[in-house]
Amino acid sequence: MSKFYSRLALKAFPYTPGEQPSDKKYIKLNSNENPYPPSPSVGKAIQEEIHKLNLYSDPEATVLVKALAEYNNVNEENIFAGNGSDEVLAFAFAAFFAGKAILCPDITYNFYFTFAKYFESEFIEVPLQEDLSVNPNDYNWDNYKKFHPRSQFGGIVLPNPNAPSGIYMNLSEIEKIVRANPDGVVLIDEAYIDFGEETAASLIDKYDNLLIVQTFSKSRSLAGLRIGFAIGNAELIKGIKRMKDSYNSFTVDRLAMYGAVAAIKDDDYFVEMKNRIITTREMVTRKLQNLGFTLTNSKGSFIFMTHRDIPAIYLYEQLKQEGVLVRHYKQPRINNYLRVSIGSEEEMNIFCDIIEKLITEAKV
Amino acid sequence: MSKFYSRLALKAFPYTPGEQPSDKKYIKLNSNENPYPPSPSVGKAIQEEIHKLNLYSDPEATVLVKALAEYNNVNEENIFAGNGSDEVLAFAFAAFFAGKAILCPDITYNFYFTFAKYFESEFIEVPLQEDLSVNPNDYNWDNYKKFHPRSQFGGIVLPNPNAPSGIYMNLSEIEKIVRANPDGVVLIDEAYIDFGEETAASLIDKYDNLLIVQTFSKSRSLAGLRIGFAIGNAELIKGIKRMKDSYNSFTVDRLAMYGAVAAIKDDDYFVEMKNRIITTREMVTRKLQNLGFTLTNSKGSFIFMTHRDIPAIYLYEQLKQEGVLVRHYKQPRINNYLRVSIGSEEEMNIFCDIIEKLITEAKV
Question: How many domains does chain B have?
Fold first, then answer.
């Protein structure tokens, strides 16, 4: 590596997003993108801002913060909006976890490990249970500190539902973890919460150490617009803002800000689209179970599937040849699984047909 | 501050962008925004992408990188595109300056100091000359290292033209600095280069330690869209990418990516608009000189002015009362100056009329 690189650059562990090959047109079920376009009102709101693009947007994204506060029933001081939830997570790592120790599941969204490297956090892996679920009792710093006597505790990072399993923890389990760790920030990444489960946002008044992160990339069909946000105690939100203002004053551009507000206002569209995905997820789950697959109880916009007899890597490669991209992980414990995003009903019928064909061929 | 804050959050020195009061409608000459809207082709390009917002944009922003490479006569491996030049600067600090010592003018864009705090760089201030110009001979690490024996040299950060003076250094002066510091990265922030002066991008083939940063926020009328980019040796660009991919895979959203490409393609519009601003700058400069002001030889989209008899802070406050916002700095040496963005001809005529009135009143 270059002699000019800093220690951060040398130690970095860059994240690799889902592949985007351009050799042919694929059915893309590998990045958990929403198969449906955003609400038509998003486009209208964006068009109205185009002629004002010579002006900076509001560094506080006030109109968006206001809309998010109203929607989530909290005060404006409890909301931070950023460029996708990855950026919000980065600022949260900078604000609360830089140079400190954090607990995190061993199998989860890989970007947390990347952030830990970037912000020089000590990353302590907590193994998932045999069935890939989180055991709340495993997340208590008191049980770790004796093995890490010189570490300063930063907090806990947990997606709910978890990725790539999609398994959901209920609010009393979350609350147990938050209560057991009053000296650390418990960050719950709710990227997929809208697909059927309950957010922990209602708990932020009760606990000053709970931080919720959500995104517009999945349930709001706005992956290409880059909007994520955090909900938490005002002091935590202030900390995140300090880091944003130390880094880039305007990370949410003018079009994203007004587009996101329009998406929030069109609640009917939002509810209809997410219900459509939930319905498709349940339909696909039943079909795959009938074909002999085992699936985790996913509450996300994806399924996580494995087959007793047929290797996941084989299915992954065959699907790619047939023009369908899904995600396969090389990590131990989950290297015989595929994560498949829920596409449109039509796309998922094609996917199921190919899978059925592959299974039948393999049995012959 | 909160007990949860990390050492980065505790030591942070957040940047404050130009004020945006909402008590009444102002003529905003305080943020160096372009007074003209972007090229009409930008709007068209954006509209074509709206229905695809459910899909992530390309993490490499390939179409934009390609267009920038062509426009700047370099290879794609020499370009990095990010969310405004502030973000590009942040990644460059992370990649090359984190934990190292940097040289930087004492009077310049204040965000460099903020980045230094965020990335724990040692910030060594180099005083500007009496006339606020940069002396290239002052930028040689060999002359500093004896006073900083334990520091690791990261490089040099210099805007050209400098802010808020607008004073430009020619390429042979830049080259002198680059050649004198082969062990550090010389980062030239060319945010205002398009307003009449020559970029140092032609030197990147010759020097592996030269990094140029530019923005679409000023000359391309796209402050609200968030596009900045770096030009440099492939190894430097790789380093910046490592940091981006450790932080947020998609910082340039889909609309920004295609909008920026459209802006590059409409060169006629670009040339016409920047020439209009240069003409207005020269017109305003002459008027103010006639009113007894001293101005730096600004090559930016702003002027930097002081008056022998009338305090800058008085003018700032009177202008604000009259509905015109300009920028006043409390910093020693420049606290009797105002930085005034070049608005439209109409706005600048109003500005000059108010200034003339204030000067006349003050003399009575």
Answer: 2
Per-residue pLDDT reduced to its tens digit, A111-167: 999 999 999 999 999 999 999 999 999 999 999 999 999 999 999 999 999 999 999
Q: Say whether both B288 and B159 belong to one domain.
A: no
Cβ contact (<8 Å) for B15 and A245?
yes
Angle, helices A254-265 vs A267-290, to 10°: value is 80
Closest chain B CA to residue A235: B2
pLDDT along chain B (364 residues), means of 10: 93 87 87 96 97 94 98 98 97 98 97 96 97 98 96 98 97 98 98 97 98 98 97 98 95 96 98 98 98 98 96 97 95 96 97 96 79
Strands (E), chain B: 27-28, 79-82, 101-105, 122-126, 153-159, 185-189, 210-215, 228-232, 293-295, 302-307, 324-325, 327-328, 337-341
- Please state, as a whole number, how many other Cβ atoms lie within 10 Å of the Cβ of residue A149: 6
- Please write the tens of the pLDDT for every residue from B240-282: 999 999 999 999 999 999 999 999 999 999 999 999 999 999 9
Whether the CB-CB separation of A228 and A193 falls below 8 Å is answered with: no
Which tokens in the block code for residue B221?
Answer: 């009328």
Q: What is the CATH number of the domain that holds A65?
A: 3.40.640.10
Predicted ipTM of the assembly: 0.95
- Count interface pairs A-B at CB distance under 8 A: 285
CB contact under 8 A, B43 and A57: no
Which token pair is A37?
């376009």
**Chain B: residue nearest A86 by CA?**
B248
Shared domain for A46 and A123, answered yes or no, is yes
Domain extent for A326: 7-36+268-363
Rounded CA gap, A168 and A136, in Å?
A: 12
Contacts of A235 in chain B (CB under 8 A): 2, 4
For residue A56, being part of any structural domain is answered with yes
- Residues 63-92 (B) with a CB less than 8 A from some CB of A: 83-84, 86-87, 90
Query: Is residue A15 less than 8 Å (CB to CB) from chain B?
Result: yes
- Decide which of A267, A294, A317 is a domain's last residue: A267
pTM exceeds cut of 0.80:
yes
CB contact under 8 A, A118 and B247: yes
